[in-house]
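User: Can you model how WT7 sits in this protein?
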Amino acid sequence: MSEPSDALSALLHESRRFSPPPELAQRANAQPGIYAEANADPVAWWEEQARRLSWATPWDRALEWDLPFAKWFVGGKLNVAVNCVDRHVDAGLGERVAFHWEGEPGDTRTITYADLQKMVCRAANALTELGVTAGETVAIYMPMIPETVVAMLACARLGAPHTVVFGGFSADALRGRILDCDARTVITADGGYRRGAPSALKPAVDVAVADCPGVRRVLVVRRTGQDVGWNDARDVWWHDVVDRQADTHTAEMFDSEHPLYIMYTSGTTAKPKGILHTSGGYLTHVSATHRLIFDVKPESDVFWTAADIGWVTGHSYIVYGPLANATTSVMYEGTPDTPGRDRWWQIVERYKVNILYTAPTTIRTFMKWGPELIEGHDLSSLRLLGSVGEPINPEAWIWYRHHIGGDRCPIVDTWWQTETGGILITPLPGITATKPGAAMVPFPGISAAVVGEDGTPVKPGNGGYLVITQPWPGMLRGIWGDPERYRETYWSRFEGCYFAGDGAKLDEDGDIWLLGRVDDVMNVSGHRISTTEVEHALVGHPSVAEAAVVGANDATTGQAIVAFVTVKGGVADDPASGERLVVDLRDHVAREIGPIAKPRQILLTPELPKTRSGKIMRRLLRDVADNRELGDVTTLLDPTVVNAIKDRMTTGG
Ligand code: WT7
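Assistant: Here's the modeled complex, given as structure tokens:
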């Protein structure tokens, strides 16, 4: 495991404090007694949260814990989609807006809870007609359009676990996921809009499913109107099959532990892991965290998680959490710079957004673009800001607070992971005096610790590893098809504890600062990418002999991918051919994994630094990539190798 970088440790010299605004504190959903109440009996406290949902059959036991396998609300039955939609309509909230949706070209749709109910029922009827049954996985590869939410909820309604694959992933990545979870149906669109132009999705599906014999049907939403290839035996248009269905549907109730979705995420190996989430515990966790951390008042607030539904942030805080709480959300299809770099601020102004949740990388991009873009817009509706995805540097935190939050909005820096289902470490906006750069404290009902190498908690003022010491309702239930890997990855490093893979420091007050990953997982713009996965893609190229990939510090994206590559037969002396190969390798990685995995920099080098036992010394390569003084090189087989690489780096080789 590597040490958190010096740059991140520098965060800890931050001493500013920001107390909750008194009016917000007074009316906050979470009041100070909440911690004591949850600590007294965490499981009972979670039961109280679960009772806010609608259950067809109550649970017998709140928690069955057979380490590392947890079951929550055992014996209880519910339907997740009914909880997110129908019960609000039944409660007379049918006219409330569920989504103010905005397409990138400027088209808009307003979808009320009553509309959403009809849309989900029609889609559920259509999926049934296409043969989807409870327990059968459906893959979703979509742009950010309302049909994506509808598709997820229709799956949930039928008890068919969905696996949403981010639209930026390649056909190969999509195929791998479809095969791993044995999806029989794929829901996609012709394309979506990105950066002012239609960006196709259907061609990638065609390539992916050509090698997926299990896929029966591909259901296609028409969004951009671009030409699509068509297989009559397999492909059906959404408007042909969904629109003619009845807009009512009788939902079956499922076990609390019925699978809700699988989300693939990068681990330390080349093969992404299918993280399994189930129903009752997950919905309890995401709805409680959404209500208490974002202080959502569903009757008046407009909430905006500016993330893609293809990531867990979108699942938990665009779809399941907000809808379970009958919230009005904003959903935006495109990029923040189209048509202009003030698109987000137009959206905040137009819909009077009250709560905005986004990632540090985006905040740093806005910093780079300059505050002038914001100043012309009325952002006075904002009352609370959230951050997620990577450690936020104090400078970005303060900028966010000042330029976007008008120095009046509390910031909640929320730490969690695909695996945790929902937020675990966070301030509460009406209670916590926040520190710029710190995620602060465990959410009520969550037990966390910072431990040293030996697994014992560190004393305040010290660094170590973040662990979660008790099961929680939204926790992953396993890795799809691989229980051993689940145990090994998360529960073997520290006995009896969930090891998140993050370094952390406990400050003198006992508050938690997250310091980044300590394994071979990179965090690029809040997206998790494994070094091994990129290495695997690179060595798959016919010219590549060996590849080592590291995450380098990057002022905007947090980390950036830097690859060191040795070439079969050696690097040609002719620089033009080297440059051509680098371009070719970057494209190759984009094809294999997706554009998000393209290395920022590829260095062709005659050799990689290795230990005497033949292990590549990534730590040294990280130093090279960050232009740091080299650490200990005494175990190197050939210490001159690193200097040769350093020379190439500085000469731009
Ligand atoms: C990794 C999980 C949580 C949804 C988006 C990412 C890093 C996440 C924070 C934060 C510091 C953070 C961690 C974690 N991370 N939030 N507030 N402060 N680091 O989900 O792709 O599963 O990535 O993101 O390193 O392990 P993910």
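A couple of observations from the model: Residues 45 and 556 are 40 Å apart (CA to CA). The first helix runs from residue 6 to 9.
User: Helpful, thanks.
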